Amino acid sequence: MSHLIKITSGTGSGSTRLSAFDAALFSAGIANYNLIKLSSIIPDDFEPVKEKIDLNGQEFGHRLYVVLSSCAESENGEEAWAGIGWVKSTGAPSRGLFVEHNGKSKEQVEKLIRSTLTDMVVYRPENFGEIDYEIVGIKCSGQPVSAIVAAVYQSEDWERK
Q: Which member of 31, 34, 81, 158 lies 3.0 to 4.6 Å from 25 by CB, making a disulfide possible if both were Cys?
C-alpha cells in the first residue's frame, strides 16, 4: 500500500519577509502548523503527488513533517522562485529522493533541480525513473514576497502516547 506525500505550493506578500512567508504558507494550505523540516529521502512505498491542499482550518499548532523550499525577495522588480524536485526508483521497493532549490527564475530553479538529482542518482544502486518537480514564483512589486513549495508527509498532535 502506497502512502501519499502531497506536494503543495503558494506565494504571498506582506509588509515584512516573515509575513510574506506566512502568507505563502497560507496560500499553500499549511500556515497553522509547526513545521518540522525533513531532508531529501522518500521512504519505501511513499508516492509524491502534486495536490494543492488546504489544511489551514483543520488543525492548529500540530507538527507537520515537510520537505520545504522557500525564497523571499524585497527588491522591487525582482522575483522569488522555489521548487522541489523528485525522482523515484523503478523497482521494488519504491523509494526516492527529493531536492529543494530556490532562485531568481523558474529556469534557474529547474536547472538546479535537474542537475542535483542527476548527480544524486549516479552513485545509488537503484534504477531511477524520470525527474518531476513543482516550481512556483512571484514578482516583488513594492512589498516583500515569498514563494514556497512543500512536500507534506503527515501531521502529528502534541499528545504523548
A: 31
